[in-house]
Design a protein that fits this description.
- The protein is built from five helices and six strands; from the N terminus they run βαββαβαβαβα.
- By secondary structure, the chain is an alpha/beta fold.
- It has a single domain (6-198), classed as P-loop containing nucleotide triphosphate hydrolases (Rossmann fold, 3-Layer(aba) Sandwich).
- This is Ras-related and estrogen-regulated growth inhibitor.
- It catalyses: GTP + H2O = GDP + phosphate + H(+).
Amino acid sequence: MAKSAEVKLAVFGRAAVGKSAIVVRFLTKRFIWEYDPTLESTYRHQATIDDEAVSMEILDTAGQEDAIQRESHMRWAEGFVLVYDITDRISFEEVISLKNFLDEIKKPKNVTLILVGNKADLDHSRQVTTEEGEKVATEMACAFYECSACTGEGNINEAFYELCREVRRRKMIQGKTRRRSSTTHVKQAINKMLTKISS
């Protein structure tokens, strides 16, 4: 049996936006009301995406980590779920600064991420419009989802699957360029040797 592809994902966002609730909804299809906001957890999850086995490692950050912790989480992960709460504009603005921080740490690589607006069931208290979420996702060049970890509305599964697909696409492209550059080096070395021999 073929070995499953491994993907490391990290979920970032301000405390209390529902990061843990989204992860747990994705993993168990259930909603849990109470979380310790200071805990970070790592989960392993097996899924079949596009007929291929994928092994995910999902880091649910506490949202209260210091800059050093946050940086090491960002270096560890290959794909990112940036979560904000549609009823909390500050959490939305924080997502933008998180993306800038990610770009700093991951450069020159492009960051693979998705943007998720949580708590879509609280539409009556909404502070961030769907259009604003879409606009920022366009600027970040990533997919955008609005969902509710509480009711399960919005496609949380699809959001994680799409992120895995994107991470794997990037890995394949990077693998190809790496292979191409090493064969180019070999060709150049051989050509140099041949030139020396013939001269």
